[in-house]
Design brief:
The chain is an alpha+beta fold. It has ten helices and 21 strands. Strands 11, 14, 17, 18, 19, 20 and 21 form a seven-stranded mixed sheet that branches. A four-stranded antiparallel sheet has the order 1-8-6-3, with no helix packed on it. The chain is extended.
């Protein structure tokens, strides 16, 4: 029976995608539930699995854009035994291959072509040199076979070897020609390569441009001392890991701090919709994750109701699925606020761009030891710059600064957070 492999629907607003990679080649046997191909859309990239076992026959190449519902391959489930037959064939062929190998070993090896009664040509050339020519060759340590003879039958003359001595160190015309030919034949690296942007990258580009064109984006900055958080992670890490089976990271602290700041300044948790302002009373926090395909923002639902351990599990799970291309569309939708951490790549200072239609995004950066004034004294502390980009149409400067200071206070004094570590 022939089973059609169709492009599945991965969301109401998604109408097409790109077959970014075939995990199985045409003609190969595939098992039910085994990944067939990677489908990349303008929102998410995901692996599509086989619904039946059988032999695969692909209809479209990698990199081709396809529509939802389009047939891109077929699976012939009547060829269930094809895999076993292929595995048995090499074993049956082994005796025949061994026989051929044995016969080939018995064949005599080829000998150099010869002339003049079977003596190699190089030997004849050496023995036919005149005494005068041989003397020059030996004194100047020339190689006769590399010198073109102009005498009868191609024999080397005294003039030939003297000319060779004179031209020593200079490339022969034939050598120059060969070098030029090789130079021309070597492929040169292209000055540029043109490739189509992936649907995900195109969507990211559109979102960023749209955010810049539709929102009045402004960024405010502050810095926070990471000493207490680092000490807390150092002293509680083993206990936390043993109790919850996962490490205590930095992101859960900032998710908790952002929730407290959103509760203190609710307007940052809202969004503009036409002429209306929508105030969200729930806290679904997007956590930006960098992947090979581009930046995606999975959403941690109801972050205000989750413990540190729950947050760490969600973040780790989303990050792993994002990098493996296994995120579902629903996992990327509906966030009310976003946190992005450029510090993991070494960023010291940056201005994040809004994730529409949200009104705010918090940027974390690299932790750097810096001298700061503490109680009138200069101390070196692990400091992090914080950046809040916000839509100035909905959020005033005072509210933005208040929000960022609240985040700073929660990080510098984690006792303000509902700790479960």
């Amino acid at each position: 029976m022939i089973i059609e492999v169709k492009v599945p629907s991965v969301g109401e607003s998604v109408t097409s995608g790109v077959v970014s990679a075939w995990h199985k080649k045409s003609g190969e046997f595939v098992n039910e539930g085994e990944p067939l191909f990677a489908l990349e859309t303008d929102k998410v990239s995901t692996d599509i699995v086989a619904e039946k076992s059988g032999v695969l026959e692909t209809k479209v190449p990698e990199g081709q854009e396809v529509k939802i519902g389009e047939v891109i391959a077929i699976i012939d489930d009547s060829k269930q035994g094809a895999k076993q037959e292929k595995e048995e064939q090499p074993q049956k062929a082994q005796p025949e291959e061994k026989k051929k190998k044995t016969e080939s070993q018995k064949k005599p090896e080829a000998v150099p072509a010869s002339v003049d009664g079977g003596r190699p040509e190089s030997t004849i050339q050496a023995t036919t040199l005149s005494p005068g020519v041989r003397r020059i060759v030996e004194e100047e340590k020339l190689e006769p076979k590399k010198i073109t003879g102009t005498g009868q039958g191609g024999r080397l003359t005294k003039a030939d070897v003297l000319k060779a001595v004179e031209n020593r160190g200079k490339a022969e015309p034939s050598e120059v020609a060969v070098a030029k030919a090789e130079e021309k034949s070597e492929p040169r690296e292209a000055r540029f390569i043109r490739t189509k942007m992936s649907p995900l990258r195109r969507k990211i580009a559109q979102q960023l441009v749209m955010a810049q064109h539709t929102a009045a984006i402004l960024t405010t900055f502050n810095e926070c001392d990471m000493s207490t958080v680092q000490e807390l992670r150092r002293t509680k890490q083993d206990e936390f890991t043993e109790k919850h089976g996962i490490k205590l990271g930095l992101m859960s602290f900032f998710v908790k701090a952002a929730v407290e700041a959103l509760k203190a300044v609710p307007v940052v948790n809202g969004r503009i919709d036409g002429d209306d302002f929508i105030q969200n009373n729930f806290y679904d926090i997007g956590v930006a994750v960098g992947t090979e395909r581009g930046l995606v923002v999975p959403v941690v639902r109801d972050a205000d109701k989750k413990s540190f351990a729950d947050l760490e599990r969600d973040i780790a799970d989303y990050a792993g699925r994002a990098r493996d291309g296994k995120l579902k569309l629903e996992g990327l939708q509906g966030g009310t606020f976003t946190i992005t951490n450029g510090g993991v790549y070494g960023s010291l200072f940056a201005t994040p761009i809004l994730n529409p239609p949200q009104s705010g995004i918090l940027g974390m950066h690299k932790i750097m030891p810096r001298p700061v004034a503490v109680d009138g004294k200069v101390e070196v502390r692990p400091m992090m710059y914080l950046a809040l980009s916000y839509d100035h149409r909905a959020i005033d400067g005072k509210e933005a600064v208040t929000f960022l200071i609240k985040v700073k206070e929660c990080i510098e004094d984690p006792k303000k957070l509902p700790l479960d570590v």
